[in-house]
């Protein structure tokens, strides 16, 4: 066999040829290396979609061109021979955007923008295959794309502008049209017809560029004539082969029997990177036609083993139409379960054979292949003859990670038989997130009945109950011959299953009780589904309504907004984000997109593998021998102070003597490339002496492990309040951590200059912080360090201090080597190193009167700070300030205990302690309501603050609009009516329950440290009349720069397109405060405004003398009179003077208030849930930009929903982290948002606030309202418990994961499946 060694493909319409490419190179690495940096690295495991591109290929047999979206981070470059690669740059640019790019940008679907190219390319791939998709298809195409900023709604709205007019019913009982809303963006949008516009202001309607499919990039004609040839590429470590037919594959397998077969690389790529498993010889099988063929046979379906999951889905759809109804039970079940298989991008490349050979214990395919008695055809080459042997699926897998495939064999075909008469097959799956998540437990259940409904044969296969997918032979044998539909038989079958699946408390994967309940839940659903389908018995309505899984319809949303202040020309208008179009076209530059400079090197951080240990020795000798490595640096190499924290002094740049958590930085390897640096990093040997470690709050309390400060806040006489109370209750509640999961991980580029000068580019929240710290670390003055921030791909508090880990370490390397050094953390590195939202434990005691007036509230909360201080004490202080929530309580005592543990050092996160404090308070109110019998909403309303009352920190509430905001939400959400409807639904559904929750929030806006409430700006007017503004704030997606442009345009009375903003930099605006706490627009906006006012006053005489002249002419006249056309603006927040020790003085300039009502539905047999509807109203004052603020409201709310539901951080007992990426850590996806999502701005907003244009900060407050989803779930659980005569208060820890929802229902199944902890057992994972 003769092999070629030249890779040929097209990239954005241009032919590319590469001689012997490195088999290790991914398509992502290649396209970025040639300057196409619009495609982003988000996770490197195919879980976030930031790297999505489109691959087009031609099938000569079918004479068909196919277009698929793929994850470039997993796709091997070597696999694209003969294909056309299209990246974000290939479809449009700012001057001529593709309709998708234009609509996503102008409909506010891009905030930080890092994920935007991936979303564009997912939608692009869809419409290239189907120019007229349904709305449901438009939503589903994003199941492999994550966004942390927008809350998804505007992205989905933009996608639906390409959809046809097919209406998809979502099953909701109400059709609600708000007074006025944004609509979908179509000029004839149905949502904008017949709407009263007496108050609300419409987002501008846009005449979009029409989509014309004939104008797309054509598939290169030369590739249609291209004849593929066998290829062989190699590097020093890997041999890569590409056969083009089955005979060539079998020959190669005979020659290299231990070679790894690769197609989609969705598994091999991940284990190679994250588990360091090497595959020295790889054979790519993605271009072998014989392995992709399929056939409808008389008795079943034959599928080529290398068909992708997407191709299988298409064939299954055809099969369901080809065969008779009784023959398609297996095909329908497989089709349904594959909808939830991973994501579109993964389904497009992952193959049947890959999943079968991987033999994952939670495979979505294997249970059905087992229970359907599928047959596998194994083929090999013996001598020169091809030999095949059929193997039944039940015999193929022989154990954990074992099968009967011989080393020279390949899996050629899979035969799936048709179902028989009276055979019923169903597939079930429960995962952490409903879509795009691997199963916790799944099942394929099959039963054949005779004419008397007796079981002839049963196959029960379960995934997630052992190290491999297994059957339940005892249950299968028991049910044989029994009558289906007999309730006593079901009870006995459940008992047999409980005995058959014995899990220990410490079982791998954890969740022992939950996993057993899922087995029983699936069997219960199957039992009644078959009973109904076989017409064995008529089901009661409450059971019949509950047997399927929760179905989600197409989402819809409305945004009812206020008008700009009268007289404003640009401030208040809902213009799109200034960088949105650049972000949508991939032209926006982030840190790692900055072009490489001559001699630039790459840094890789060496981190601790121990939770707590002394460092005995560091040996980099083997790493330094690797060709291309330029140096290793550790604590001894720091020329100045070895401290990278700008707030405390216990965080070292490089750990010198002791490490306090896994992931703490110990050293830096610097090499020519990222690949070399990371390989060398793993060769650095560190000798430790392990010390005892603490992971949880409970362990910290037990061992009295705290940081020095214990903040407190008190008012009145708590003990006297308890004496006067009719009721006194005590309890405790816990909230979990939350990973920031900004889409752009921490990145930095440090460039040494002459005379010990340094330039640093970093993705941080405060340009002054890297400047200050690098100067101190290097022992130079701050005036020699310039810190620049162009934009940040999301932050949410996580880059306030943690970005310094990277920039300070690189600075040390750059100091010694005098070369530029760059580093962008991989997702797992970033998560392991940088810390999260603080977990809280709240222990409360409350006293109240019989009529519900709260008299005293005593709260002690404990927060897990991790290994170093960071901002933990400040988070505790802010938590104290928020602990009163929205309620007047005359006597309070709040104490915060910052716990010192050995997990990563936790840090600031959107809300900064307030979400946890509010959660504790609202949990207390729910429990008190349940114990007293007082309705929880009545309890809230009786204790709501009113105008003029004082908070525990003695701030008088003026301009207090919360009661009105709360009432507005109560009315527009039809709360009382829907409350009754929920009760009726719950009475009619046995295993489906709904819950409803209405909550208010207040959020104080100002930094607690008065000195931080200041900002500067610099404004230049050039002779052509153009304006350049600079300020100290950072653009992280929130639209700060856009608002600054609006403010400057308004103040100078010039068109906004003549105003420009380049970046934030310390040589332009000095001593900036961190962009955080929802203060960015307040502080920097006034600074810009003040600078512009100075210039306006200077130009006023010329405008008066030259009323008919253009601004350019006026500016030139002033210039010729030697008028200074540059001005510095400064602002400090007035009246802020709180003294913590004396508890006096004003803490906050104002409060942003809001309220929301959320309704959910849960499945009590699985713990699954969906958000049916959310109504939310926020008091924005007079918004600077209603569109941007709505984006912050929606995005903040969805981030809060994630914290409250699916986002769970888990550590192993040794301190290592399990949840290091999107595979294990699940943020909300596009199909997790409320099915009906309604946003309102408060109608009675005041205009006398001392903020810029009477606007209010909105970045953080909406996150707190994510609690409404948690408490709606709690409400639904309460309803489920009442059905089982369980009236004890619900104890539910946040987040409300499917496991916790199911266990909290506390029914007979849970009791039967309970797995008790035995002596000596430890949990598999721990939540800190």
TrEMBL record:
Q: Which InterPro entries match?
A: 2Fe-2S-bd, 2Fe-2S-bd_dom_sf, 2Fe-2S_ferredoxin-like_sf, 2Fe-2S_ferredoxin-type, 2Fe2S_fd_BS, Ald_Oxase/Xan_DH_a/b, Ald_Oxase/Xan_DH_a/b_sf, Ald_Oxase/xanthine_DH-like
Cofactor(s), by name:
[2Fe-2S] cluster; FAD; Mo-molybdopterin
Question: Please, which domain of life does this record's source organism belong to?
Answer: Eukaryota
Residue positions of the active site: 1260 (proton acceptor)
Q: FAD-binding PCMH-type domain location, by residue?
A: 233-421
Principal EC category: oxidoreductase
Q: Which residues does the annotation say bind [2Fe-2S] cluster 1?
A: 43, 48, 51, 73
Positions with a binding annotation for substrate: 800, 912
Task: Kindly list the GO CC terms recorded for this protein.
Answer: peroxisome
Q: Which organism is it from?
A: Gigaspora margarita
> Can you say what this protein is called?
xanthine dehydrogenase
Stored PANTHER family: XANTHINE DEHYDROGENASE
* Residues that hold Mo-molybdopterin according to the record: 765, 796, 910, 1077
Q: Which family does it belong to?
A: Belongs to the xanthine dehydrogenase family.
Q: SUPFAM superfamilies given for it?
A: 2Fe-2S ferredoxin-like (SSF54292), CO dehydrogenase flavoprotein C-terminal domain-like (SSF55447), CO dehydrogenase ISP C-domain like (SSF47741), CO dehydrogenase molybdoprotein N-domain-like (SSF54665), FAD-binding/transporter-associated domain-like (SSF56176), Molybdenum cofactor-binding domain (SSF56003)
Its keywords, alphabetically, are: 2Fe-2S, FAD, Flavoprotein, Iron, Iron-sulfur, Metal-binding, Molybdenum, NAD, Oxidoreductase, Peroxisome
How many cofactors are bound and how? Binds 1 Mo-molybdopterin (Mo-MPT) cofactor per subunit. Binds 2 [2Fe-2S] clusters.
**UniProt-annotated binding residues for FAD:** 261-268, 341, 364, 411, 429
Q: Answer yes or no on keyword Transmembrane.
A: no
